Amino acid sequence: MNRLVLIAFAAIAGPLAHAGEDPGKQLVQQGNAQGALACATCHGVDGAGNAAAGFPRLAGLDAGYIARQLQDFHAGTRVQPVMAPIAKALNPDEIQAVAAYYAAQPLAPAPALDRSSPLPQDPGAQLALRGDWSKGVPECTRCHGAGGAGVGSQFPRLAGQHASYIATQLKSWRDGSRHNDPGKLMETVAKNLDDAQIDAVSHYFAGLGQP
Amino acid sequence: MHHRYVLSALLGLSLGPAFAADAPGGAIADQSEPHKRVAPATERFEPPAEASISKDAFGQMVERGRQLFVNTQSLRGQYVGNGLNCANCHLDQGRQPHSAPLWGAWTAYPAFRKKTGEVSTFIERIQGCFMYSMNGKAPAADSEELKALSTYAYWLAKGAPTGIDLPGRLYPALPKPKGGFDIARGKAVYAEHCAVCHGASGEGQKQGEHYAFPPLWGRDSYNWGAGMHRVNTAAGFIQANMPLGQGGTLSEQQAWDVAAFVNSHERPQDPRFTVDIETTRQKFHANDGVNFYGQTLDGVLIGQGID
């Protein structure tokens, strides 16, 4: 794994940033002297992430959402062995700069799918567009917006996110290891999902909003 | 089949209390008002699954009604004057118990309503929600829109017994807390449990031109004539259904406090407005549950409306 990451790093970060460039982009490509690895190593310069490794796509996420997640890693309210030490090495200005950079990376728009769309067959799509009210779960698109496009800075975009990452997060909320959501909104949802539902809905959102 | 089992459970449990409520002294109660729960919520009526909507002409009308119910904004400017959809207050597409589900409503009309002073049909009841909850104009009784919406309700009520209160009908009636309620406390509940979705000033949140999270007061919300403007009605809805996905987690006290806070804000004028606020209050609000219309809060007269 390490070697693979290094090779990827060399390939992506090869053309090093020039002085005077956007500080967010510079951080993404080079990291900083406090020990933050170059974000591009894992998330890509374009923010595409890495499905196989479970590195989330950051392109097109809301800047406020990205910044708050980095602050949460920094403060220790969101915990993860790979990402937390990197966020702890960022100062507040760097967090804002890198959040703005990734939020501005282009991404295909999410399709306008919600409960007014015809009932889909696929169980993942049904959960996303209709919910599972027998367990009190509203449709994902009620909070994450039509097509999982995201709403404001509290409800992140899901469309086009890697299935592996979506599934990890849902399981982390379910087992209590991620708990930085406002009002336990996402935790309540995740605790009511079984493995098959998590698998289905993760693949559904991963397939939306691809170019 | 499952339906039959549920049905017998319903009949057994709910006949007594439902009839008892009508009996004493021959006084005609408002039959469309919330009643006490008639059976444990576990004995719930199961409306048919959405997947069972047929592909024939009838099924197409059911689906059209479902569409209008969840995307009432398609009638904005025509019959809808605010930013809401029917499903914002009748959750899970009008299926969710204790959220005034359509299957509970279909079998409960015609009924005498205090609000209109006469017997209202199901169609007239929906027209009321257009005028007040949607701050709009009611489609004609024989319009395609009302045909579709009532066909959807009829289909959802498949197998339900007519003329008795099904458990889960309307919103739960929450008794007023012994110590009353408090707007200032409600403001704190709002900031902690509601603002993340409905916005710091009740303005909701949009995705594009439509609301992802509906507004709770202001220009795009329900008007001063809507059932939700009653603190008692809103408290019942909120306790059972809000925060979204966490229904039943607020205490009854919190629900009353936050309902009072929400309904102490301005919203579009009552379309029945006559002469002035005081006259309108006496005519339409003095005997309509707990509400702030025409009252003075912190030196400000409530009920002025918003254009």
From TrEMBL, chain A:
Residues 1-19 form the signal peptide. Keywords: Heme, Iron, Metal-binding, Signal. Binds 2 heme c groups covalently per subunit. Heme c 1 binds at residues 39, 42-43, 83. The lineage of its organism: Bacteria, Pseudomonadati, Pseudomonadota, Gammaproteobacteria, Candidatus Competibacteraceae. Pfam families: Cytochrom_C (PF00034). The keyword Heme applies. One of its GO terms (molecular function) is heme binding. GO terms for cellular component: periplasmic space. This is Cytochrome c553. Heme c 2 binds at residues 140, 143-144, 186. It comes from Plasticicumulans acidivorans. Residues 19-106, 119-209 form the Cytochrome c domain. InterPro entries: Cyt_c-like_dom (IPR009056), Cyt_c-like_dom_sf (IPR036909), Cytochrome_c4-like (IPR024167), Cytochrome_c_Oxidase_Subunit (IPR050597). The keyword DNA-binding does not apply.
Automatic annotation (TrEMBL), chain B:
Residues 60-157, 181-266 form the Cytochrome c domain. The keyword Heme applies. It holds the Pfam family SoxA-TsdA_cyt-c. It comes from the Bacteria. Keywords: Heme, Iron, Metal-binding, Signal. Residues 1-20 form the signal peptide. The keyword Metal-binding applies. One of its GO terms (molecular function) is metal ion binding. InterPro entries: Cyt_c-like_dom (IPR009056), Cyt_c-like_dom_sf (IPR036909), Cytochrome_c-type_DH (IPR051459). PANTHER family: BLL4482 PROTEIN-RELATED, CYTOCHROME C DOMAIN-CONTAINING PROTEIN. This is Thiosulfate dehydrogenase. It comes from Plasticicumulans acidivorans.
